[in-house]
Design brief:
This protein is α/β, with parallel strands linked by helices. The protein is built from 16 helices and 15 strands. A seven-stranded mixed sheet has the order 6-5-15-13-14-11-10.
């Protein structure tokens, strides 16, 4: 029987005190910083600094303009922006930050304005950013929409890959459990602006994606969208964070419990969801947008009677870290015994403390797109195949936009599945 503590309906909301009046020292500091931002690049230019094209940039820098009427002034503006001193360093810094936060390269919608399925984007390329500003301070990740409109791999191909993985694992005596956290824009679109890039094509594409997932004939598929939307309707609290691409801790708890219930419904015994009060979070989307902000949310923990958690980390390199969990049960609640490999992205990483009390023998392996960014894809792929072959249960979690939108690092691609088939053929049945 599940023992669940009453859940808070949202973060405490306190009226902020009136802002203090800035002193002279603060005003001087702000003025100095502003002057540095405004004149610093040009001072660097005077010392010889220049901006070059960034490797992998999706367009060439603007050429020196010729005179052709009033349009020349627009061309001069574009040329000056492209040659702005230290521009290349700023782009590299932004890419580094985005890959650290999301485990994927930044997207700037270089093809904005192009027709997609006969429907053109409504805004010019210059207005497209990685982050879309919504109402009431809400922010959204542009890749939610780009990858819905222009996925790297057709949806049918991805689903065929899922079915093939399921069949390979089943034939070897193993079990696949698959879950797909919905994009923030899927569950909480109510704060989106009335119009945004790729709106016309992404809405029907996302609907088609979820219809396909609902009809996915894989026994281990776990629908997390339905219970999260039900909880939001019950509490009136959005399932996602306003300043972040991830969901709330309450949604994370629901996600973990849904996976545990699919593994073994008996794991609910002796399990409690405990509210821990409010906590602060740094909004990843606000940071990428260039205006880092901090929000508050209600924190939650999963407690399991008599379970002691032990975790260790193993780094293949600085950017690719595996986590081993060896939890033990001494009464009240049992742990899941079969050897399990948990493959997932940042949603899994953020929920790892909630997953840990359920497993007696678990290894968490980051998704392969993380390995691409860490520069150790061959080593990470070999290790992932090794962990799958050595496990009885394989849990795969990928957020909606990468599950059905990204090719690089996908475990459902033909190349990876060919290697998985060969690996399982050499391994003993579980």
């Amino acid at each position: 029987m599940t023992e669940t503590e009453p859940l808070a309906t949202g973060p405490d909301v306190l009226a902020p005190p009136p802002p203090p009046r800035e002193g002279k020292a603060v005003r001087l500091l702000v003025a100095a910083l502003g002057a540095g931002l405004l004149f610093g690049p040009w001072a660097a230019a005077a010392l010889g600094a220049r901006s070059d094209a960034v490797p992998g940039e999706n367009r060439a820098l603007a050429e020196r303009p010729d005179w052709h009427g009033f349009k020349t002034f627009e061309d001069i503006t574009t040329y000056a922006a492209d040659r702005f001193p230290l521009r290349d360093l700023a782009i590299r810094a932004n890419k580094r930050f985005t890959t650290d936060v999301f485990g994927e390269n930044p997207s700037y919608a270089s093809d904005a304005g192009a027709a997609v399925g006969g429907v053109p984007s409504t805004k010019p390329q210059a207005e497209v950013a990685q982050v879309i500003s919504g109402r009431d301070g809400w922010l959204y990740f542009f890749d939610d929409f780009r990858r819905a409109c222009r996925p790297d791999v057709p949806l049918d191909t991805v689903l065929a890959g899922v079915r093939r993985m399921d069949a390979l694992l089943a034939a070897s005596g193993r079990r696949l459990v698959l879950t797909v956290p919905p994009d923030k824009s899927t569950v909480d679109p109510q704060f989106l602006p009335a119009d945004y890039v790729d709106r016309a094509c992404s809405v029907p594409a996302k609907a088609e994606r979820w219809r396909a997932l609902a009809g996915l004939d894989v026994p281990g598929y776990v629908d997390v969208r339905t219970p999260i939307e039900a909880q939001e309707k019950k509490t009136g609290v959005p399932a996602y964070l306003p300043l972040d691409t991830h969901w709330t801790q309450l949604s994370s708890t629901i996600f973990v419990q849904a996976v545990a219930n699919r593994l073994d419904p008996a794991l609910a015994t002796g399990t409690s969801v405990v509210p821990l009060g409010t906590t602060k979070y740094g909004g990843d989307l606000s940071a990428i947008a260039g205006n880092p902000q901090t929000g508050t949310e209600q924190a939650f923990a999963i407690r399991r009677k008599g379970v002691t958690v032990a975790k260790t980390e193993e780094a293949l390199n600085a950017g690719y870290v595996l986590t081993h969990v060896r939890s033990t049960a001494s009464g009240g609640a049992a742990v899941f015994g079969p050897r399990t490999v948990l493959i997932g992205d940042s949603f899994t990483q953020r929920a790892l403390d909630k997953f840990a009390p359920y497993f007696g023998d678990l290894v968490r392996v980051p998704e392969l797109s993380k390995a691409i960014l860490a520069g150790n894809l061959p080593q990470a792929t070999d290790r992932m195949l090794e962990e799958i072959a050595g496990s009885k249960v394989v849990v795969v979690e990928l957020v909606e936009r990468t599950f059905a939108g990204a090719k690089d690092g996908s475990p459902f691609g033909a190349a990876f599945l060919d290697r998985l088939e060969a690996s399982l053929a050499r391994a003993p049945k579980r």
